Amino acid sequence: MSKPLGDVVKADEGEVFDIELEENILRANQKIADENRDLLRKHGVTAIDIMGSIGAGKTSLIEKLVELLKNRYRIAAFKGDLTTTIDAEMIRRHGVEVVAINTGKECHLDANLIKKAVQRLDLNSLDLLLIENVGNLICPAEFPLGSEKRIVVVSVTEGPYMIVKHPFIFMDAQVVAINKVDLATAMGVELNKLKNDVAEVNPKTEVVFTNCRTGEGVQEVVEALGL
Ligand SMILES: Nc1nc2c(ncn2[C@@H]2O[C@H](COP(=O)(O)OP(=O)(O)O)[C@@H](O)[C@H]2O)c(=O)[nH]1
Ligand SMILES: [Mg+2]
């Protein structure tokens, strides 16, 4: 039998300097996020922040959402990535305007980048703005962008503990898409267990099971987002 694990080394607040985020940075981000929200609302634009790990299915979900919604709404998308524009090109193929945002080394979008990207759009000819955040389950949680709603895409291929290990991103999400349901059996992942994990972290969040390759469940995502 292995030895018991013993006490866990825990960082005190502010102690881990390389991941500590200065309060004033977060406050400045919140202020710009509020301004973004006001500006978008004034023009009747609904922005949705789409978060999740690399490969979870964020781009695939956006592509399916665009296909479902482009006859009802005038849509644009922002695509946050470190350096590439691959996803942006993928979304653009569906005939919507896409602004690629490269964050360099940053693991999340922030409100200031959204403010800059919004200046590229004609807000008067837009109803819906889909924002694909940088693939990460940790950093984007702390940086609201000014969106009306936040959705987290989590796929079964990330294993059974993704949600319990990363609770913060789920706390501030109105919708969670549990994606790649077609692979659940192969991965040995129990879908209802993942749903319960979300409910434990945030009982108000709506959980939808999706296959963003086929489009299964995407209509329910639309309804959960109130679109
Ligand atoms: N089997 C399966 N593959 C999926 C599903 N959704 C996305 N994928 C695939 O997973 C890969 C990563 O998807 P992508 O949308 O690029 O993920 P992102 O990094 O979160 O934007 C792509 O090859 C997709 O075709 C799904 O529901 N089932
Ligand atoms: Mg992507």
**CATH superfamily name?**
P-loop containing nucleotide triphosphate hydrolases
Strand order of the largest sheet: 3-2-4-1-5-6-7
CATH architecture: 3-Layer(aba) Sandwich
User: Mind telling me the CATH class?
Assistant: Alpha Beta
- Distance between the first and last residues' Cα: 54 Å
Structural class: alpha/beta
Roughly what percent helix?
Answer: 25-40%
Instruction: Count every beta strand, where a strand is a DSSP E run of 2 or more residues.
Output: 7
Shape descriptor: globular
Would you write up a description of this structure?
34% of the residues lie in helices and 18% in strands. With 227 residues, it is of the alpha/beta class. It has one domain (24-224): Rossmann fold (3-Layer(aba) Sandwich). Strands 3-2-4-1-5-6-7 form a 7-stranded parallel β-sheet, with helices on both faces. Helix 3 (86-92) links the parallel strand 2 and strand 3 (97-102). Helix 1 packs parallel to helix 4. The chain is globular, with a radius of gyration of 18 Å. The termini are far apart. The relative contact order is 0.17. It binds guanosine-5'-diphosphate and magnesium ion. Guanosine-5'-diphosphate binds at residues 52, 54-60, 87, 135, 179-180, 182-183, 211-213.
